Amino acid sequence: MTGTIFGLVGAALIGIGLFGMLVRRDALLRILSFNLLGGGVFLVFGAVARRGAGAGFGGDPVPQAIILTGIVVAFAATTLAVALVLRLAAAKDRA
Amino acid sequence: MSLLADGFTILCVLAGLVFFAAGTAGLLRFPDTASRLHALTKADHLGLGLVVLGLLPQMDSLAGILRLLAIWALVLLASAATGPMIARLLRRQGGAS
Amino acid sequence: MILGLVADGLLAAGILALALACVATRRAFASAALFIAYGLLLALAWARLGASDVALTEASIGAGLSGVLLLGGVRRLAGLAEPSPDAETGPLLTVLIGIGCAAVALAIGAAVLLLPDPAPSLAPQVAANLATTDLGNPVTGVLMSFRALDTLLESAVVLLAVVCVWALAPEGGWGGVAGPRQPIVRDGPLALLARVLPPLGIVIAIHILWVGADAPGGKFQAAAVLAAMWLMPWMAGLAPAPRIDARWLRLVLAAGPALFILIGLGGALAEGAFLAYPPGWAKPLILAIEIVLTASIAVALALLVMGPPEPPR
Amino acid sequence: MAWDMLPMLAVMLPVLAMVAAVPLGARGAERLTLAYAPVGLALAIGIMLVVQLGGVPIRQELGHWAPPLGIAFRADGLAAAMLLTAALIIGAIAIFARADFGTAAGAVERRHAFAFWPLLLGLWAAINLAVVANDLFTLYVALELLTFAAMPLVCLDGSRATLQAALRYLMFALLGSVLYLLGVALIYGSAGTLDIVLLAQRVRGDIPVMIAIAVMTAGLLAKTALLPLHLWLPPAHAGAPAAASAVLSALVVKGSFVLVLRLWFGVMARVPMPDAAQILAGLGAAAILLGSVAALGQARLKLLVAYSTVAQIGYLFLMFPLLAASAGEVAAKAWTGGVVQAVSHAFAKAAMFLAAGIMASRFGHDRIADLSGAGRAMPVTLLTFALAGLSLMGVPPSGGFAAKWLLLSAAIGAGQWWWALVILGGGLLTGGYVYRVLAMGLRAGDPAPEPAPVAWQRDGIALALALVSVVLGFLPLAAFGLVQIGRLDVAP
């Protein structure tokens, strides 16, 4: 049940994040929306992991490890996007 | 013994929750940032302190007790630092809420 | 049971409300602040989902470091005084996109509900094979043995991200220190935190790394805490950022992924498959990789938050 | 024998080189890349030989953990072809790029010289990983590695326009990968494995899997820049330095394309989706026609070449309905045609971008209207452009011709003649924009520009790449049998 609830929350977050990414024009808000979207995707994965609980584990460890990897990669992507936005703004400032 | 401990835990955690609720209400209802900040930090310190106190008898090892106390101490330290920082920012912005 | 459901429901409502507020507000600062709160609630959701390792990672990286990064970005963008020249999306288009996104969310929700029951799971296989790795934490077992390739590649991705961020350095900045210069804060609360917290934080990070073999924790969470312990004195102007051409810095960055690959290639030579650990050597090798990787990732995460080197004013 | 190590080495050695490049610094990284390039080429040739002679894919289970718990590398014929393509093109680019990104002995390290070499190595590793990985999540990491390596290449010169192009590219790419990851979650939830070979046996067309394939395909199309998700490509590919444009157009978009193939004809090998395939090919046809028309209207040479990429990507998607609707020899022709198109376009487009770059640096601009006199001043460069153009048009004998002819006859064989019309129409339009450039270049114009010290090697490398794209057309058809090896949609 917990798995399903947060799986549905994940689905909703995906919709919200997608909306923000497509509608917002401010680059930082888009990056934030991308992170909301990513959080939703991880939650869907988390729901899958929770449903696979067994063998004495509270969730299937394989998707849990994958989510962990995914969060770090998503953070790296966010830093890249923020650095690019700042650099672009500085370039505009000078122009 | 365990009944006593459980009762203590329930009482303390409930009391802690009351403080949290009061702090949250203050955050939402108080008119200006300074008093909001005040409500938040004071209520949360006491709230968290009571929750930690209540959970202490539930720990079965010294390490667990130390960890709980460390959490409380770290939160105290963090809010002791952030509260004045927000207040300082407020002063710099001319006291606008 | 019922209490659990109520908790889940409240948590779910809180997460959704914060996410909606995050997208609805047009002020970047408020949005970033809401995002941090969202990340912390998400960490609680992970705990509810029985994924303590993910909860720790979400709290430290998803909420903590991302929050610092985004707030810092908002502040510096405001400093550049760049009025957003782009027009807002028109109302009709907004509604259409909204409908489309709702449809996507519904489709994903339906997919979640329609997943097969009983759910397929690799948990039994992990449990059956965990003993060969001498690890007690199944997630660490997956990350360092069964799917070690992903972890290795991910550490390379993080390193590449540092190269990417540095590649965005403006003209004249190359060879300087990473990130913008921070004003020195000699006293006050930030200075206090920056002095008191790092020793504590480093102990906690080592603890998280050490228990990771058998309990929730591990290199990513420990590295995130270590990075934060470096960033805080940096933000207070007490610890200077390193020069990006410092030899030691680049060696530390490369050491973790390089050691991981070399041990993997050693497995190919000795055991006939990349990343195969010789019998009995699994745990010591994994620990060696984890310790060196923690250092590399901690430095990389801190450098990612600091940003590219900038020309001296 | 340890032949099963080869795909692993083809992935891990460039990763190791990329990692080592950071402490080595710009000059050390440059030399390391040039030293590794022949090794990488040898590995690719070795893999091709082993696959070709053995007739089966090369497989290795990493750490001896068999899927579904572990991860396997699997180099089939498609992977072997792409590995060899990547090795040749990246090796050529590395030599070409020395003039732009080289560091003299004792010189101070410069930003773009420091960044270029690890990025190139990372890109190489990512492409190789994307074609030999057999696990859907490992492929996600490959996609991210590819994005991270490609994005800074777009804006290496640091100008505002390229930074803007890079940001747009990054947003498309991140959205694409996160959608892909969503599909990975749903597929794992449905089938309990991420191994493509196992999925090919297990997957039936239930709803979560179909939704997963839909979002993953959408995400990958954004990364492959199939119309209407192509908007990021022209500014990004046209603004980058010539060496970077060449790898971006030749290889990076192919990485995500191979993933689409893995999904449709690997994971979904038992679940044909003919209607969806018609839509995909319809988008491809629109890309061919609209991309070519846009290329015809461009005033700048590099933008023309970039729009040509948009059009040529369209051809790649014509194979989908042909494969979905037919079997046996017709399907084999469609598969080979699609793969040869990917390979020959890679060589032709790399050559074209390098030629365009050489012209731009010689003239100091890339306005097509002011390129008159190029034929006299730089005949080799213009010849390179022409040869590459012939391959893109599909004029016999060239690799492009072989690809388009295979797709054409597969379309007729499958009874879907309308795609044949698209292929022919696209060829004519391609001829139009290539002719525009050649006609201007051959016009005796103003005094030809000063013979700037463009190293002859650079012309030679571009010409060699163009020649490869042409020579592919001389290969006997049997040589293309390689790419059939290990196809999961025909496995018993």
From TrEMBL, chain A:
Residues in a coiled coil are none
Report membrane topology: Multi-pass membrane protein
Keywords carried by this UniProt record: Cell membrane, Membrane, Oxidoreductase, Transmembrane, Transmembrane helix
Subcellular location per UniProt equals: Cell membrane
Where does the chain cross the membrane? 6-24, 31-53, 65-90
EC numbers listed for it are 1.6.5.11
* Gene Ontology MF terms in the entry: oxidoreductase activity
Q: What is its main location?
A: membrane
Source organism, top-level taxon: Bacteria
Please name the InterPro entries in this protein's record.
Answer: CPA3_antiporter_subunitC, NUOK/Mnh_C1-like
Membership in a protein family: Belongs to the CPA3 antiporters (TC 2.A.63) subunit C family.
Q: Which PANTHER family match?
A: ANTIPORTER SUBUNIT MNHC2-RELATED
What this protein is called in its record is NADH-quinone oxidoreductase subunit K
